[in-house]
Amino acid sequence: MARVCQVTGKVPIGGNKVSHSNIKTKRRFLPNLQTKRFYLAEEDKWITLKVSTEAIRTINKNGLYTVVKELRAKGQHI
């Protein structure tokens, strides 16, 4: 379970690779995860999160402190 976004919960999903001759073989679609450091000004410290690019947009929109409070409410250690 290493490829999981800490904010959105995105995980790899399964699907088919389809060749030109329409032969289908199993493959995995991985989320676009980035390891990113954020500065949490309210606590005066840096935190490192493994987040998807969609989660980075969510953090930019809602604010880091709001997202961290929601994660802590769910029980994640940050």
Describe the structure using short key phrases.
single chain; 78 residues; Ribosomal Protein L24e, Chain: T; two-stranded antiparallel sheet; 2 helices; 36% strand
Rg is 16 Å
CATH superfamily: Ribosomal protein L28/L24
* Helicity level: 25-40%
Beta strand %: 35-45%
SSE topology string: EEEEHH
Q: Give the overall form.
A: elongated
Q: Given the helix and strand composition, which structural class is it?
A: alpha+beta
**Sequence of strands across the biggest β-sheet:** 1-2
CATH fold-level name: Ribosomal Protein L24e, Chain: T
The stretches of 5 or more residues where confidence is low (pLDDT under 50) are: none
Sheet with the most strands? Answer: 2 strands, antiparallel
Count of helical stretches = 2
Quickly count the domains: 1
* Number of E-state strands: 4
Average pLDDT score = 96
Which architecture does the CATH hierarchy give at level 2?
Answer: Roll
Can you identify the CATH class? Mainly Beta
The end-to-end distance, rounded to whole angstroms, is: 18 Å
Outline the fold blueprint.
Blueprint: E1 13-18, E2 24-29, E3 33-40, E4 45-52, H1 53-62, H2 64-74
Antiparallel strand pairs: 1-2, 3-4
Protein described:
By secondary structure, the chain is α+β, with helices and mostly antiparallel strands. The protein has one domain: Ribosomal Protein L24e, Chain: T (Roll), CATH 2.30.170.40. It has 2 helices and 4 strands; from the N terminus they run E-E-E-E-H-H. The strands form 2 sheets. A two-stranded antiparallel ribbon has the order 1-2. Strands 3-4 form a two-stranded antiparallel sheet. A hairpin with a 5-residue loop joins strand 1 and strand 2 (24-29).
